[in-house]
Structure formats: C-alpha cells, structure tokens
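Review form for a predicted model. The reviewer records the input and the model, then writes brief findings.
Reviewer: anonymous (R2)
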Amino acid sequence: MFIAIARPAVEPQGPDAVAVPGSPTVPELTPRALHARLLENAAQRRLRGLERKACGRAEDADYWLHAAPVAVKKASALRGAQRFAPLP
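Model under review:
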C-alpha cells in the first residue's frame, strides 16, 4: 500500500509556530510594550492577591502576592537587557 505524506494546506507563520490554522497571528511586541505588559501583569496579580486576602483565602492571597514581585523582577531584567534608560 502506498502512503503519500502531504504537507498541511495552511502552515503557521510568525512567532507562534503551534498556532491553530485560521487563528489571528500574535504580533511581536517591542521591548517597551513587553515591559509595560509585565508591569500591568504585576499590578493585576497584586490586586488579585488583595482580593483573595479580603475574602479570607490566605493561601491564594499568598500565591498572588508572591507572584507580583516576580513579574516586576522580569520587567526589571528586561529593562536592563534592552538597555533602556535606567529607572530613578
């Protein structure tokens, strides 16, 4: 029996190599946009931690309050790696 191996009709393009065919492409962010997104994520994590703490969910709150500084450290490392102007 002969089996032909054919290439898929739609091949992913761009930075997301495992994208589902037909899905919108994920644009590559500039270093400043990525930095801003990381800081926004840190703020959201901190707010989520404070909400969990107010609801009496201590374990959840501890996780989210610990995750916020991690995102800030990532943003800081990116800022240093991309040679942005130093923060005051």
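Findings: The radius of gyration is 20 Å.
Further findings: The mean pLDDT is 77.
Recommendation: see findings above.
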